[in-house]
Sequence to fold (657 residues):
Amino acid sequence: MQAGKLSTYLSKGAIWGFIVLELIFFSVAGEFLSITDKAFMDIDNMLLLLKQSAPIGIIAIGMTIIMINGNIDLSVGAIFALSGIILLDSMTWPIFAGLGNWVIPVSWLLALLTGITLGFINGLIVWKTGVDAFIVTLGSMLGYRGLVFMYNGENPTSHLNWTLVDFAELEFLGLHTATWFLLIVTAIIWFIMTRTVHGRNAYAIGDNREAAVNAGIRVGPHMLINFMIIGFLAALSAVVFYSESGSVNPNDGQLYELWVITAVVLGGTKLTGGAGSIISTFGGVIAIQLLRKGLGHIGADTSTVNLVIGIILIAVLILDRQLNAKGKEELKI
Amino acid sequence: MAGMSKAQIGGILARQGILIAFALFIIGFTLANEKFLSADNVLSVVRSSAILGVMALGVTFVVISGNLDLSVGSMMSFSTIVVLDLHDKVGPAIAIPLMFAMTIALGALIGFLVGYLKLNSLIVTLGMLSAIHGLTLTYSGGKNMDIVDKQGTWFSVFGQGTALGIPVPIIMFLLVAAFLGLVLARTPFGRKVYAVGGNGTAATFSGIPRARTVFYCYVISAACVATAGLIQASRSMGSQNTVGQGLELEVLAAVILGGASLLGGSGTIFKTLIGVLILGFIQNGLLLVGLQFYVQFVVTWVIIILAVWLDIAAKRGKFWSTIA
Fold:
């Protein structure tokens, strides 16, 4: 086997190997350190893990497209919070008073439209001004968060609709509603990225923007659509999450971009664009969630989790660099 | 000025566009509230900008070298907590250099990862943001830190003292700015920073040690963060673990507003100073005319986009013209 092939194989399959390692580690460590007497590999525990992966996971799937494109979106946490507020607050608006439970689809639609609109604003600015997506979304991260706070000050926005809670807690074929949303989103976006022209163009643009322009791809509108997709998915994530919790704090979703980008990078997507896979991102999401849950299982607190996540993120970067540097001529310093 | 290309003239116009907008802003706020330009208010704006400002000065080096630092906020929390904790244990005279050493060690670690291992700075510092936050929480056990004997220590001088009628934080801010301004504009090291950020490969070929230069940029940034942490700790004499959370964004906003390009190779200490002041005056002005504190986020966003747009519009015809 050639060295190049081996490294490709390693970096593609690495995330699943990592998940297996995590499972073994936490199962063994859990036997000695666990604060509960339940086994880590318990089926209920794993199903719960999938459900809890959904909010971050749904956004991470969207972030993968953005990053394959060579962009980044730092405003997802703020979009998540604002869509959540619209979802819960719109249910109490007087104009919808006569709708009864039909208010649910209306509120969903409004929340999703909020996400799409915010994504549209991001995308339009990136397209029309040529300002780097990093700066645009860094700015809108501040700006959208400002809108979140302007909505209700520092107070939470709460409204619990029991029909909605019942729906969120529904189990179909043993999987929770949130898990289904995550799986369906993953499947649809995977299809788009691997089987459609839009997906192929995304890779082309991320790989070499100039070549893509020369090949006749309309880069601007393409990126606009992608920002609308991630806006939609951030809102969908809020819909899934807040249907059950029923209360949005203005600080909700902060640091989501950190978790999401960590999941995407763990899944092997390149920051420079042009490479990445939806399925691997799904693996990245599971790996992150396993880590958070596993560390909790063996009694570690938030501070340790933060520390470990940071270290792993950097370790993955180093590993990735080592694997990909092989065979390439590196400029010696 | 002879020999200036069209793009250069456009760039200057764009930069002045921001200054003109800033001037209009100041005039508007002065008309809306006569206190705005009073000496007291100006002094208080600069004083409250000092912490953010010192950090922005360091990040300017990092950005000019073509990299990013998203970890400065949580690093500032770290140095604040450490110096407050050590103050009661070993006294301020030992606590301060110890805190500086620990913070700079973190900066050196980032510098090693980004400079020598050539890892992507965005992801490295994103990871460090999380890791340093965890480190701070572990260090403090999740508790807030307080100096026990607040009256009987000279430690408060850095945040609360005045010299010749000028608040010490302002003096420290300006001293650091003057020193770093000289380093960047007048030393061989400063030229290397621009060269590395402008074109890393070309710089390497012309014998400039890229890795070492990037490494020192992060060390400088960390030293600035430690200074900011010192001012913060001394001003409040007690702190939460999350005191610096989110500051990295405001810092970057200030640097970008000042006109440093995220692509590296451009920016100056003076411009960053202007960026810091613009941010400070906008926040202050909005509060004075009675707008909600949160509106400043939205306004800052609009201003950042406009600033960078102007900058790019002036440089068009190069990289970004590829966007259809």
Remarks:
- The two ends of chain A are 30 Å apart (CA to CA).
- Chain A touches chain B through 53 residues (CB under 8 Å).
- The longest helix of chain A spans residues 3-33.
- Residues 5 and 11 of chain A are 10 Å apart (CA to CA).
